[in-house]
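I am still getting used to backbone structure tokens and would like to learn alongside you. Label the sequence line and the structure token line clearly, so we can match residues to local backbone shapes. Would you write everything just below, so we can both look at the same thing?
***
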Amino acid sequence: MKKISRKISKGKSPSYVTTPFPRGGGRVGGRGFFLFFLLLFLSANYSDAKTESSIFNSQFSIESPKRPKVKPKKKVRRKPHVVKVVEPQKPVQEEVIDAFSDSLSIDSLALVGDSLANDTLPWPESLRARLDTIIMKSRTVKTSQFAVMIYDLTADSLLYAVNEKQTLRPASTMKLLTAITALDKLGGSYQFKTYLKNTGMVVDSTRTLKGNVYVVGGMDPRFNRDDLIAFVESLKKMGVDTIEGNLCADRSFKEKDLFGEGWCWDDDNPVLSPLVYSRKDQLMEKLMAEIEGQGIVLKGEVVEEKAPLLANDICSRAHSIDQILSRMMKESDNLYAESMFYHLAAAFNKPARASGAKAFEQNLMRRMGLNPANYRIADGSGLSLYNYVTAELEVSFLRYAYENSTIYNQLIPSLPLAAYDGTLAKRLKGTKAQGCIRAKTGTLTCVSSLAGYAKAANGHVLAFSILNQGVLRAQNAKDFQDMICVAMCR
């Protein structure tokens, strides 16, 4: 049998050639022709199917959209990641609250007061609005005790009052009560006197005084070296070169206590001596030194003894109540205030006792319609921790002085003037209150006060009292008081 092989030439249909079958094959029968024609049929159909498939695909194919060419990304060199720690922001305080901080200057406070109060309100409603705002915003009043009272003396009407009946320590505003009572009782021409007296006779031939020399103390805080020299010169004019007797200190003017009731042992307390010299109990010592310096011989001793009623007057030295009052109020001098207090007491009885001065002040309270049992008076300077008054009481005394021209005309010049002199010289400068406040200051540990007179912008004269107690920083209370002063003078 021959093999059938397919030969293909260019451009010609394939032709088939019979080849002999390999050895061992059989003859081609029906089954062989069947296989031949089957192969031929399949070959023709495969060619037609391939042609139809290519036509189908070319006519109805759906082309996929062409993707735009993407440029390759450049490699970015990344910086190392750093974690930043953000501090929390501090809360911003409101301007109004800051403005009423007690540590700010009075200029800033005054400006804020302008913005808070309705200036379109008529007076005194505008003043009350400002005062309400000051008290509402001030931190001082939230952490301490306080009292405020303002009285319109021109209109004779109460303007403002908060806690005016609450008893508080007055500190040195107590000097107002002492001064007004003294001016009312002693009068404007009263003098503080110290006397030099003697007993016995002077032997002219020997220029010898056969007797004692007495220094009668009058608790004059202004007694100075000029006064000592005047005493010694008066002895020389008598023709005395020798004293055959004693040099006697007469301390009968007041009680023997050298300190006031309720004074702190560690405070800078004045010595309450009738024979005070340079703020100390040393007048006799200094006088003896001056006598010896003038060549006068003392054959006796320096002793304490009251002068007899029939003793002769040799010399006296005096200072007016105005001289005492001025330093007492402007410089807040405690010695001068206690001297005033005991001279007031001496008008009641001698030896002068604090109780006598208290009696005069209590009588004046009754004349004002106040009950003395509601207050406590221990001294004349305000040093005592036993003093308790009210803002109403201080304003009542100020009103009484205003209604009595002789008292008022002497009291007013003695009070510190805001921004100009005394204890108010450095306060309220550059404000509406400059030159419009005349008042007495007061300061003790944890106590601050201010009381006196204010001149409002409309010309009215106001009496006021501001008491602060339990204040750990005195400046806070002073700022609070200054705000009120500025409000009153607008």
In short: The first strand starts at residue 4 and ends at 7. The chain is about 35% helix and 20% strand.
